[in-house]
Amino acid sequence: MPTMNMIQALNSAMDVMMQRDDNVVVFGEDVGYFGGVFRVTAGLQKKYGQTRVFDTPIAEGGILGTAIGMGAYGLRPVVEVQFADYIYPAFDQLVSEAARLRYRSAGEFWAPLVVRTPCGGGIFGGQTHSQSPEGIFTHVCGLKTVMPSNPYDAKGLLIAAIEDDDPVVFFEPKRLYNGPFDGHHDRPLKAWSSHPTSDVPEGHYRIELGKASIVRPGNDVTVLCYGTMVHVCLAAAEEAGIDAEIIDLRTLLPVDVDTIEASVKRTGRCVIVHEATRTGGYGAELSAIVQEHCFWHLQAPIERVTGWDTPYPHALEWEYFPGPARVTAALKRAMEVA
Amino acid sequence: MPTMNMIQALNSAMDVMMQRDDNVVVFGEDVGYFGGVFRVTAGLQKKYGQTRVFDTPIAEGGILGTAIGMGAYGLRPVVEVQFADYIYPAFDQLVSEAARLRYRSAGEFWAPLVVRTPCGGGIFGGQTHSQSPEGIFTHVCGLKTVMPSNPYDAKGLLIAAIEDDDPVVFFEPKRLYNGPFDGHHDRPLKAWSSHPTSDVPEGHYRIELGKASIVRPGNDVTVLCYGTMVHVCLAAAEEAGIDAEIIDLRTLLPVDVDTIEASVKRTGRCVIVHEATRTGGYGAELSAIVQEHCFWHLQAPIERVTGWDTPYPHALEWEYFPGPARVTAALKRAMEVA
Amino acid sequence: MSKKMKKPESLRLHVPEPKSRPGHSSDFGEMHLSPAGAIPRPAADAAESKLRELPYGLIRVLDDAGQACGEWAPALPTETLLKGLRAMMLTRAFDERMMRAQRQGKTSFYMKCTGEEAVAVAQAMALHPDDMLFPSYRQQGLLIARDWPILDMMCQLYSNSADRLKGRQLPVMYSVREVGFFSISGNLGTQFPQAVGWAMASAIKNDTRIAASWIGDGTTAESDFHHAMTFATVYRAPVILNVVNNQWAISSFQGIAGGESATFAARAIGYGMPGLRVDGNDFLAVYAATQWAAERARTNHGPTMIELYTYRAAPHSTSDDPNAYRPSDEAAHWPLGDPILRLKQHLIASGIWSDEQHAALQKEVEDQVKVAGREAERIGTLGSANPDPSTLFEDVFKDLPVHLRRQRDEMLGA
Amino acid sequence: MSKKMKKPESLRLHVPEPKSRPGHSSDFGEMHLSPAGAIPRPAADAAESKLRELPYGLIRVLDDAGQACGEWAPALPTETLLKGLRAMMLTRAFDERMMRAQRQGKTSFYMKCTGEEAVAVAQAMALHPDDMLFPSYRQQGLLIARDWPILDMMCQLYSNSADRLKGRQLPVMYSVREVGFFSISGNLGTQFPQAVGWAMASAIKNDTRIAASWIGDGTTAESDFHHAMTFATVYRAPVILNVVNNQWAISSFQGIAGGESATFAARAIGYGMPGLRVDGNDFLAVYAATQWAAERARTNHGPTMIELYTYRAAPHSTSDDPNAYRPSDEAAHWPLGDPILRLKQHLIASGIWSDEQHAALQKEVEDQVKVAGREAERIGTLGSANPDPSTLFEDVFKDLPVHLRRQRDEMLGA
Ligand SMILES: Cc1ncc(C[n+]2csc(CCOP(=O)(O)OP(=O)(O)O)c2C)c(N)n1
Ligand SMILES: Cc1ncc(C[n+]2csc(CCOP(=O)(O)OP(=O)(O)O)c2C)c(N)n1
Ligand SMILES: [Mg+2]
Ligand SMILES: [Mg+2]
């Protein structure tokens, strides 16, 4: 079994699917000859030809619009939006069209597409290369939303997303492309190769959408997180010496309520962590779900640790990023209450 | 004091502001000669001329893009997006530009604009004339979000929004344009004229953004709502015979946390009601806020009564609309718990 | 530099205004109409650089006497012409009755295409039956020309239990996969790049089917127009992109969409795409232009944009009253006449039709509408035969996820 | 109909490819270059219908010998030419040093405009100082031509305590209200309709100032381009909309943006707007075209689009390595040469400049950059002199709302 980083795992998912299914096509800005600014589609054009892997004009709305038409024809487009910050020009096509097509046509037409897009900060990208807009999409009925935290999941989830007959917005935390990152930006970089999830099978496998993963079982407090924050939360639990149960949601919509509910009912405490801005973020929905399902079991207020409600600032990136110190503090607050 | 319906009150707000401030300009699709498909801008072009009130091409992104440029020049554009369902093509300009301009230029440039847009269902408009997308905007830092529930507030809030130096998304519940509506769609229509809030002063007054209004003081349970749902909640409390404290939030961002907190701490119970889809909606944020601020005072789980997580269906509109029966049931559930 | 010497001029904002408003007499100004037959017909594989005059002319075939003139005149069998006439007449009769049905409260909303029937009908007929159509809300004629039962359309309008869209969509927002008619969106313009994507897919799969799409003059300002034009030219997609310039977008005349400074067809040459400008009320011209564009697309010569120059004789929709913004007799003064009357005149001039036959056909289509209408009403009108509420949660996703199952149960009180 | 007889052709997707890729020799194909002086200069108030050939030519003033030829040659005082030369040279020296600074870890990111200096510098100079500029990230020359201190620019690049943008923006995303330079956005194209809006506002207020904006060839595909073009023509906004066609958009050649089937300038005629296509490496041509468009705008004749035909000689940014997608010697083969060398040649040919003076000027601008660079580094480089963390919460809104105050307190541990 080869060792893959997240980029290679995602590339492998597309490779496997293009091999198995002629209808899978890949396109987006710079994804063709060059293989994408993060190299996630590298080699695919050479292998599958220009009519299945190609560059597009810089028009995210056009990418989505044409992808929907291709989906209606019977293809399975996997498109890249170069940064999640640039998905907004495609918003109408995603929300009013991709998400609504099956419903409004009562099942006559649908758009089985995947929008891959790098999200999150920690690379000094400033406010337009760092956003985590997943909370905007989880509010849109008809879209599925996914965010993996490691190479193994990334491949399995991307394959499941491509095989899914509904539109999926697939967020790739760019800070994780080349290695796990626990928020200690001042420590040496780690590579995926020494992480167990880099053992990625070459062939086809899927991780069912809608299923969370308990990445650290524990008894004291439930931590709900996804993407880069999974690694931050693992580090924080360790540093705080708290026996936290850390749940990597993986799919945000549909979310795995049963796993969340079972855990919080057991621990009685819950900390929610995401990198996106707080107000109206996906953490708010998680908080609402937890209090609706586990009200009588909660022993302490649910905590949210999130990005601040400001744009992602270039120089003060590490003041913005919800790192292990803030998560540790929240875990302690959650545990303080008797 | 004349009696005004919501359309007249909104029209009066623009009229008053155009009179006072040369820099106020009004534009959008069909707003000029015709006065808007809901007649909200009727008469303004005639009064203030074609260069201050004018029709635009059908391009919501262009309307917002040019409005931002005008704002940077020094004007105060008040633009109409014909239905909230059609705001998505303008999403990038709103989110990446209007909301971010002041921050990214460290205060050198800003866009003091107001986007007026009719929202909500109950008029058999089907899925693209009924949406309530406020929850998408409350997650965007840098935008203020407002939704009035009656003529008096509508005028005062719109004047405050126009005078505000930050971009404001101003949602107008279209079902309330011509009369209050409590969700009893099978009963005779009511007009505003017999409602106290239709006593609207002709001149200038403002209702500060960020301040909620307690429309019905009560002791048993706090109801958080806005827009059309205010009237539905009033009816439901009456019908359930429950002494609910009903808070009309009016401004969703920034929200009046203090009023919410004081009320829930007193009642110990909370029901949140909105017409938008549930998952990731603004109600989730309200739920999170309430449990963070009032955890130790809560005697029952916070309830959310919302639109279902589906598009707004044409024929089954009343099955979709969160009417008094559903609110009543939630109030009872909240009260059941001892 | 001289500009520094002169006292600078004050800048002025130009706001386009139509030639006439209510209370004034109708005026279409100096409308430039090429005479019928005046525009040469280039080969369908001509280089775009040879086609740059086309957007500034107006392709017309039928002259004032109903004669077909010039190179664009298509040699159509009588059968085709009569089928076209019938489809246009049926479309108009259907519109009349459904407009009345809305006024009678049988449905919430309706939109007519009166005066524009030639666009959808002739274009549907000039395409192959398996070409894919991405319409706007004003091309009901496509369905009718493809012989789709009007009863089925009525059931959609009535959101009754036989509505194939389960009462979900606003009336007129049809979707008919069986005849290649794509689901209509309420959001203007979105179908334009989708049609391009469908056509690209057809090319990727080395299929032979092409796509066509329709938007209005007003909608050309939306970003989707630009995306469709760009992607179509870049990938030479086999698609026909139609702009139905019916002079109005609700209350805004076409100048507000940019029709004052250029024709809509001229947009095409900016991208290096042929742009045809066609008399949209001339069945033969519309047919011929569509055929030309289809041939071009089918032979891998890429996309064509067609501006169909016509007039929206009816209100925008049942929610609209055009007397508030345009002279009420404007439709009557439209210089390009009525598409049905013009084809009728041509058929009579050609000796294959008569006033009597026309009157009989008129009665026949009206009866057809009446019969279907009665049947539709028997099944149910809006609110009288609602779909099963539990269907409300279907088709959001292919399979019902847990949270929607729970909401459904909550609604059903389970 | 004949099409029914023939066996239908299989459709094919066309995907544009540049003439050459790494490993092959540079090839610009049959690039159509009008000779210098060949294109006539119409009056600035000429009707658009008389200008429809312009987008297909290339306005050039400087010939191969450095002589200014033809009607477009502007009569510029020596002082102006020398100021332009200096600004271009300073821009290039600045770029060189900041690129190195990024490599040395003094900042996170940088973008050069090498080879495109004439665009920003000549255009800034052809406009009035109070005209408003809405740039993309590759017009640092605008600031330099408007004499904005490069030290201030460096502090932005270093996000240090003297950064006027408080360390918030990615390097190169300047904002300088004092010299009418609008805040640069990371989202491509958004400034184009904003410039139109600003110009509309200027017209609404009967002001005399006009606006100008810049986007790249790749960015023309974005919806903002279409919105800007539409609104500008509809309201005849006093604005100049510039498309800097530097042949590349990161790794995509201009054919992917639609440059294969039409020039970008041709887009303009589709809207009824004049479109000039200009040798972007010819200082005099750029100056003249801009002056023409500005005169047109100032006299209420509306907007102009200018395509500046040039070549991105440098990598897209410090994150990019163009050797992965284009021949590494492509810049050297660019047929339109280097804008600095071409102006230098003209000045020498005109007898007002010499190699010695040029070398001295080169040293002077390098010294200027060095001095400013040292000062900027003294103030701080990325991470060494961060702004006060509490500033993170300022300017989201004009006033700090409660929830942000609470978050700030939480961050500061208060
Ligand atoms: C994105 C969007 N914006 C606005 C509307 C509201 N609207 C519906 S139809 C219409 C006018 C369209 O005019 P045109 O494109 O000329 O088509 P026509 O109605 O004349 O056939 C408008 C503004 C909409 N449906 N979608
Ligand atoms: C909306 C959006 N999409 C994508 C990007 C990523 N991106 C940054 S620069 C660039 C290429 C732009 O090319 P062009 O417009 O030709 O300008 P140039 O860099 O050549 O000056 C891309 C795709 C972005 N910044 N914004
Ligand atoms: Mg129209
Ligand atoms: Mg470029």
Task: Describe this structure as you would to a colleague.
The complex is a heterotetramer, with two copies of chain A (338 residues) and two copies of chain C (414 residues). By secondary structure, chain A is α/β, with parallel strands linked by helices. In chain A, 35% of the residues lie in helices and 17% in strands. Chain A has helices spanning 6-20, 44-48, 60-73, 91-98, 101-104, 134-137, 151-163, 228-240, 257-267, 282-294, 317-320, 324-336; strands at residues 24-28, 53-55, 76-80, 114-119, 144-146, 168-173, 213-216, 221-225, 244-248, 251-253, 270-277, 303-307. In chain A, α1 packs parallel to α7, α8 (228-240) crosses α12 and α9 (257-267) crosses α10 (282-294). The relative contact order of chain A is 0.13. Chain C folds into two domains: 48-320 and 332-383, Thiamin diphosphate (ThDP)-binding fold, Pyr/PP domains (Rossmann fold, 3-Layer(aba) Sandwich); 389-414, no CATH class. Helix content of chain C is 37%, strand content 7%. A five-stranded parallel β-sheet of chain C has the order 1-2-3-7-6, sandwiched between helices. One magnesium ion (MG) binds at residues 216-218, 246, 248-249, 312 of chain C. One magnesium ion is lined by residues 216-218, 246, 248-249, 312 of chain D.
